[in-house]
Amino acid sequence: MVSLLDIIGPVMVGPSSSHTAGACRLALLARGLVGGTPDVAVLELHGSFARTGEGHGTDKALTGGLLGFRPDDDRLRDALEIAERDGLPYRFEKTTMEGEVHPNTVRMTLTRGTEHVVVVGSSLGAGRVRLTEIDGYEVEITGSLYTLVLTAEDRRGSIARIAQLLADASINIATLRLSRKERGGDAFMVVETDEAVPLVLCDQIRGLGWVRRVRALDKVTG
Amino acid sequence: MYRALADAIADAEAGGTTLAVVALASESRDHGRPVEEIRGVLARALAVMRGAVADGLTGEMRSASGLVGGDAAKLRRGPPGPLSGTPFREVLARALAVQEVNAAMGVIVAAPTAGGAGILPAVLTGLADARPVDEARLIDALATAGLIGAVVAERASLSGAEGGCQAETGAAAGMAAGAATEMLGGSPTQVGHAVALAQQATLGLICDPLGGLVELPCVFRNATGAAIALAAIEMALAGIEFAIPVDEVIDTMGEIGRTMDVRYRETAGGGLAATPTGRRLARERLYQIKRA
Q: Considering only CB atoms, which chain B residues are within 8 Å of A5?
């Protein structure tokens, strides 16, 4: 459903809603997966991101997103200098990804303390984005809702337990997607919610013996 | 949100109200947000638009490549032309101003996209300031523009990579024409004709930016797109009607976009981008960005 406010917006730093605002949002989502500004980052640009990214400030927008700047933050312009000043070694590479990959795609490999993630995402136009892969698991995260990313043992009743905890906190589930690489391996759960999941609830979920990792992502659009 | 402008126009005419009112009601229903809250978001967008116009008119903005910048100020300070002192010249200056800000990584409102972001603020604020028109009616105009853009997004496209420049500056011209027609007292039916008149003028317009950058010809397409919007407003308010219904004109834009060669869809593979000078400038400027 198209919203009037998607058309009159977003408020953003130019010059391109896909190469600048979208890139910033992808990096903001990736930042959320390591829980804050990463210490080290390698950003591999594919397709049009690699070809015309520099002219569109895609490198600045991605770096700004990793630093926690939103698409309308005019510090995006100086993001490369800010990262350098803060001693953050962010490296850009050009790559060609195999298969049916959207022309504006980036693979981000981030480390923050003991947290580590490899995430792939695409900028779809008009500032809309989609994360397509996290640590090898296929996902579909748009950042238009609050998102909970869980890694857990693949066991019966896990979805029901998580759903109950969210319901008890009056949090409505909008979408839920479960995937695994093999039977008996880790289960990977992505839950999109209408309300933000508070930190205490994240800790409570983390406290379940069979949950390995809990990551809560903020909305990046709307 | 409406999928056909004809339906929105019928609802507005039947209710004796404006397209802004039916658009805000529809948005409020769809997303469970109070109308006042939606108007608040639009008010912020309007403030950012005015800021971008002001920043661009200083003439200080330069893009990273240096391909564009400083031309908005020429329309303010340069030698006069036959339309000096009219809203026409002011609207052109403001459209260039916002796009120069965009190219320089300044803050703008993507409306509908960053590449076409100059047209709506230029036409609305340029005409409103000449009258003057109060803030509430400008916010209404943004709601009407959003409705028009939403219908174009549903029926055709708002992406240059999908539909060429007709889907970016063309759609922006249609949005601006319809929104300003209503702001200046036109009926919902006249708004429909204004959108059709603007959109028909940009059918087939390709997206051919040098080096793939949102700079050349994008900045100038915003000025000429605003001029097309002004022509459509003038005709629609005079009672001129366009025989092909507006939704069919929008469908035509979508159909042309779907069959448009990929060279003309933001790939820098054709059009002005592929001219000898276009290629040379892109090569030189991209080299300059890398060195900077």
A: 27, 38, 41-42, 146
